[in-house]
Amino acid sequence: MTEPKQRISRHDRITADIRHRIVSGDWPPGHQLPVETVMAQSHGVSRMTMNKALTRLAREGYLIRRKKLGTFVAQPRAQSASMEIADIEAEVGQMGQDYRFALLLRAVRELDAVEADDIGSGAKAGQVALSLRGLHSADGQPFCHETRLVNPAQAPGVLDQDFAATPPGSWLLRQLPWSEASHRIRALNADAGLARALALNDGDACLEIVRRTRTAEGWVTWARLVYPGDSHQLVAAFAPRDRSDQA
Amino acid sequence: MTEPKQRISRHDRITADIRHRIVSGDWPPGHQLPVETVMAQSHGVSRMTMNKALTRLAREGYLIRRKKLGTFVAQPRAQSASMEIADIEAEVGQMGQDYRFALLLRAVRELDAVEADDIGSGAKAGQVALSLRGLHSADGQPFCHETRLVNPAQAPGVLDQDFAATPPGSWLLRQLPWSEASHRIRALNADAGLARALALNDGDACLEIVRRTRTAEGWVTWARLVYPGDSHQLVAAFAPRDRSDQA
DNA sequence: CAGTGGTCTAGACCACTAT
DNA sequence: TAGTGGTCTAGACCACTGC
What we know:
The structure is a homodimer of 247-residue chains. Chain A has 247 residues and is α+β, with helices and mostly antiparallel strands. Chain A is built from 7 helices and 11 strands. Chain A has 2 domains: 10-73, Arc Repressor Mutant, subunit A; 78-235, Chorismate lyase (3-Layer(aba) Sandwich). Helices cover 26% and strands 34% of the residues of chain A. In chain A, strand 9 and strand 10 (218-228) form a beta hairpin. Chain A is elongated, with a radius of gyration of 24 Å. The two termini of chain A are 22 Å apart.
């Protein structure tokens, strides 16, 4: 193929160059880089352009920059991974399977103390919440059992929403402004109820994900998602620390 | 306290301002921002400084910038999380518990086809590898059962290393240059061997993490870590897409 | 004190793309 | 074609920090 155009910027090129030298082991941890001005000259760019590359690599964790001392290759950190915990509907669709959601329970009730404590982020016992329970299925097979609590104060319109077929997770994802979430992942043995819901045998291993979503104003939703352990797995890749590579 | 100095840069200040307007819902998804030049003026900075803030927010995922169209608040994406899968020794130490590692098996042997296939990254059947098996314990209780394969070609000195008490994960983390890893997480029922190793009952749910580590040169190590499901959990926070907030 | 990174500017040209 | 973001520069001053 004929080389089209050089559509990558100089600082991108330089960033990739340096990153490659680091991950290839050419520049081991602790290696000191030349000063900015020198590197700028040797790459034939202005100092600002070189600074852009170096600043970015420092932000990504590859470099440590200290005034007066210089720029060094960082020590590899503990294993870090980023994980996309996708919307379940999208997840099933991605596998090319037929997705369905069935609502098992819907109630508007007050939180008890245990729930409020687990939710955190300002949730209080006695606070009114929407309580949902439902089953996600893929090609007719149970795929995920969901237990969810939603804070109506943070999700306007949620009480009017019919979740008979629309999974609340998908709806909330569309409605919510930017929010924060934390996840807790563990394994558990299916109890009788769970086994029945997921068409498993008593005691079969399941993967449980508890997700707490909040905004600056308080808690939005608490969700417990339980997957059959043998049919589901999370995949995490090594930290792509920002989204620049996906351009 | 007396306001010391304004030690935060203008672009940091502007970045935080805009990010706050987004996460607070003040600027909802889809909201269009003024053009760069106007925002620069209204914030009293040069266009480059404003550009630095906007570019960063775009890289972090908060903004979508399209030529000719303008800059918009992004739609919240699928739940994304970053997870620190720490070194087990550090993990146990962090809980204030006493850590110990016991080597159960050590062998230098050839990979079979199934193993090579699972490892990927250029691993081939018949290739010589170091095979290890060991048990991590916290305060005398089994904490994690580890099965590991190491590529001696990628880990110089690994064959001379005595792993009787030093966990191979910790050693490798110190020895390796920058590397990539992928993780697979699932739940499984303990079989007889696993139950014995972890002091569990047959069928108890366990959390399995399979980690493949590689460099540009090829595979480095393959590790299967199995935790008792009720005693261990992974915690993931909402994606801090880069390290800028940790400054 | 001196060396290094951190920041900022004013102006310029380019690339992309909706119209 | 016109408007927008993307990039780049040369030079400048500042802040921090080890000597």
